[in-house]
Design the sequence.
Protein backbone atom coordinates (compact mmCIF):
# COMPACT_ATOMS: atom_id res chain seq x y z
CA UNK A 1 0.00 0.00 0.00
CA UNK A 2 2.83 2.43 0.83
CA UNK A 3 4.36 2.01 -2.62
CA UNK A 4 1.04 2.86 -4.30
CA UNK A 5 0.63 5.97 -2.18
CA UNK A 6 4.19 6.99 -3.02
CA UNK A 7 3.64 6.38 -6.75
CA UNK A 8 0.37 8.32 -6.68
CA UNK A 9 2.25 11.22 -5.13
CA UNK A 10 5.14 11.32 -7.60
CA UNK A 11 3.91 9.93 -10.93
CA UNK A 12 1.58 12.84 -11.72
CA UNK A 13 4.53 15.22 -11.62
CA UNK A 14 7.32 13.20 -13.18
CA UNK A 15 5.57 10.32 -14.93
CA UNK A 16 4.92 11.85 -18.33
CA UNK A 17 6.13 11.19 -21.83
CA UNK A 18 8.40 14.21 -22.12
CA UNK A 19 11.50 12.78 -23.80
CA UNK A 20 12.91 16.21 -24.49
CA UNK A 21 13.28 16.70 -20.73
CA UNK A 22 14.42 13.14 -20.01
CA UNK A 23 11.09 11.80 -18.74
CA UNK A 24 9.38 8.78 -20.25
CA UNK A 25 6.27 7.88 -18.31
CA UNK A 26 7.39 5.62 -15.44
CA UNK A 27 10.86 4.54 -16.50
CA UNK A 28 12.71 6.86 -14.16
CA UNK A 29 10.47 6.48 -11.13
CA UNK A 30 9.80 2.71 -11.02
CA UNK A 31 13.44 1.70 -10.50
CA UNK A 32 13.56 4.14 -7.57
CA UNK A 33 10.30 2.70 -6.20
CA UNK A 34 11.75 -0.81 -6.48
CA UNK A 35 14.74 0.27 -4.38
CA UNK A 36 12.75 2.19 -1.78
CA UNK A 37 10.13 -0.54 -1.40
CA UNK A 38 12.23 -3.62 -2.17
CA UNK A 39 10.20 -5.86 0.13
CA UNK A 40 7.08 -5.17 -1.96
CA UNK A 41 8.69 -5.79 -5.35
CA UNK A 42 9.69 -8.96 -7.12
CA UNK A 43 12.02 -9.49 -10.01
CA UNK A 44 11.42 -11.88 -12.89
CA UNK A 45 14.71 -13.47 -13.81
CA UNK A 46 13.43 -15.83 -16.51
CA UNK A 47 15.35 -14.81 -19.66
CA UNK A 48 12.37 -15.59 -21.92
CA UNK A 49 10.38 -12.60 -20.68
CA UNK A 50 10.64 -9.22 -22.35
CA UNK A 51 13.32 -10.11 -24.88
CA UNK A 52 14.10 -6.76 -26.50
CA UNK A 53 16.79 -4.77 -28.28
CA UNK A 54 18.06 -3.41 -24.96
CA UNK A 55 18.88 -6.88 -23.59
CA UNK A 56 19.80 -8.91 -26.69
CA UNK A 57 23.48 -8.63 -25.72
CA UNK A 58 22.81 -10.88 -22.72
CA UNK A 59 20.51 -13.39 -24.41
CA UNK A 60 21.19 -16.21 -26.84
CA UNK A 61 18.13 -16.86 -29.00
CA UNK A 62 17.77 -20.21 -30.77
CA UNK A 63 14.96 -22.11 -32.44
CA UNK A 64 14.31 -25.75 -31.53
CA UNK A 65 11.37 -27.64 -33.04
CA UNK A 66 9.59 -24.41 -34.08
CA UNK A 67 9.97 -23.00 -30.57
CA UNK A 68 12.15 -20.02 -29.71
CA UNK A 69 14.49 -20.52 -26.79
CA UNK A 70 16.32 -17.81 -24.83
CA UNK A 71 19.43 -18.94 -22.97
CA UNK A 72 18.00 -22.46 -23.09
CA UNK A 73 14.58 -21.45 -21.69
CA UNK A 74 11.34 -21.09 -23.68
CA UNK A 75 10.72 -17.59 -25.02
CA UNK A 76 7.64 -16.09 -23.38
CA UNK A 77 7.42 -12.81 -25.27
CA UNK A 78 9.45 -10.48 -27.44
CA UNK A 79 9.22 -6.74 -26.96
CA UNK A 80 9.44 -5.26 -30.46
CA UNK A 81 9.95 -1.66 -29.43
CA UNK A 82 10.89 0.44 -32.43
CA UNK A 83 9.76 -2.12 -35.01
CA UNK A 84 7.35 -0.86 -37.66
CA UNK A 85 5.49 -3.18 -40.00
CA UNK A 86 5.86 -0.52 -42.71
CA UNK A 87 9.66 -0.97 -42.45
CA UNK A 88 10.07 -4.77 -42.14
CA UNK A 89 13.80 -4.66 -42.92
CA UNK A 90 14.56 -2.61 -39.80
CA UNK A 91 14.42 -4.53 -36.54
CA UNK A 92 14.17 -1.42 -34.36
CA UNK A 93 14.57 2.23 -35.16
CA UNK A 94 15.99 2.68 -31.65
CA UNK A 95 18.94 0.30 -31.82
CA UNK A 96 21.79 -1.00 -33.92
CA UNK A 97 20.58 -4.61 -33.83
CA UNK A 98 19.86 -5.83 -37.33
CA UNK A 99 19.22 -9.06 -39.19
CA UNK A 100 22.84 -9.40 -40.29
CA UNK A 101 24.09 -9.05 -36.72
CA UNK A 102 21.55 -11.55 -35.34
CA UNK A 103 19.89 -13.53 -38.19
CA UNK A 104 17.24 -15.20 -36.01
CA UNK A 105 15.62 -11.78 -35.58
CA UNK A 106 14.51 -11.99 -39.22
CA UNK A 107 12.66 -15.25 -38.42
CA UNK A 108 10.99 -13.70 -35.39
CA UNK A 109 9.88 -10.65 -37.38
CA UNK A 110 8.65 -12.80 -40.28
CA UNK A 111 6.52 -14.84 -37.88
CA UNK A 112 5.20 -11.70 -36.24
CA UNK A 113 4.31 -10.20 -39.62
CA UNK A 114 2.45 -13.37 -40.57
CA UNK A 115 -0.12 -12.49 -37.90
CA UNK A 116 -0.69 -8.96 -39.22
CA UNK A 117 -3.29 -8.49 -41.99
CA UNK A 118 -1.60 -7.75 -45.35
CA UNK A 119 -3.68 -4.64 -46.08
CA UNK A 120 -2.31 -1.40 -44.65
CA UNK A 121 -3.76 -0.56 -41.29
CA UNK A 122 -4.96 2.97 -40.68
CA UNK A 123 -2.94 4.58 -37.94
CA UNK A 124 -5.43 5.19 -35.12
CA UNK A 125 -5.23 8.35 -33.11
CA UNK A 126 -4.11 7.95 -29.54
CA UNK A 127 -7.42 7.68 -27.70
CA UNK A 128 -6.54 10.40 -25.18
CA UNK A 129 -5.37 12.89 -27.80
CA UNK A 130 -8.81 14.35 -28.42
CA UNK A 131 -11.74 15.77 -26.53
CA UNK A 132 -14.47 15.76 -29.14
CA UNK A 133 -12.86 17.31 -32.19
CA UNK A 134 -10.20 19.19 -30.19
CA UNK A 135 -6.62 17.94 -30.10
CA UNK A 136 -5.22 17.77 -26.55
CA UNK A 137 -1.55 18.70 -26.17
CA UNK A 138 0.76 16.82 -23.78
CA UNK A 139 1.08 20.06 -21.79
CA UNK A 140 -2.69 20.37 -21.36
CA UNK A 141 -2.92 16.69 -20.37
CA UNK A 142 -0.15 17.17 -17.79
CA UNK A 143 -1.77 20.32 -16.40
CA UNK A 144 -5.13 18.58 -16.04
CA UNK A 145 -3.60 15.48 -14.48
CA UNK A 146 -1.73 17.49 -11.85
CA UNK A 147 -4.44 20.05 -11.07
CA UNK A 148 -7.58 18.04 -11.97
CA UNK A 149 -8.94 21.17 -13.67
CA UNK A 150 -8.24 23.21 -16.79
CA UNK A 151 -8.45 26.39 -14.73
CA UNK A 152 -5.17 28.25 -14.92
CA UNK A 153 -3.89 26.39 -17.98
CA UNK A 154 -4.18 29.31 -20.41
CA UNK A 155 -2.44 31.66 -17.94
CA UNK A 156 0.35 29.12 -17.25
CA UNK A 157 0.76 28.57 -20.98
CA UNK A 158 1.04 32.30 -21.67
CA UNK A 159 3.60 32.66 -18.87
CA UNK A 160 5.55 29.74 -20.33
CA UNK A 161 5.59 27.77 -17.08
CA UNK A 162 3.87 24.61 -18.29
CA UNK A 163 7.05 22.59 -18.88
CA UNK A 164 9.06 24.03 -16.02
CA UNK A 165 8.43 21.51 -13.28
CA UNK A 166 11.53 21.50 -11.13
CA UNK A 167 12.67 20.05 -7.86
CA UNK A 168 12.78 22.64 -5.07
CA UNK A 169 12.97 22.07 -1.37
CA UNK A 170 12.45 18.32 -1.65
CA UNK A 171 9.11 18.37 -3.47
CA UNK A 172 8.18 18.33 -7.12
CA UNK A 173 6.39 21.49 -8.31
Sequence:
Amino acid sequence: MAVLEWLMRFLPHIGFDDRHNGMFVDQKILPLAAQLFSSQFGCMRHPGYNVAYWNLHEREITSINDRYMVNGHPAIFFHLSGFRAEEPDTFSRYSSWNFERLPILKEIIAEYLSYIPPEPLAKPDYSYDHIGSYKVSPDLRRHYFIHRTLTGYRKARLKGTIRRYTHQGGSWL
Notes: The radius of gyration is 21 Å. The chain is about 30% helix and 15% strand. The beta strands are 17-18, 23-24, 61-64, 67-70, 73-74, 130-131, 134-135, 167-168, 171-172.
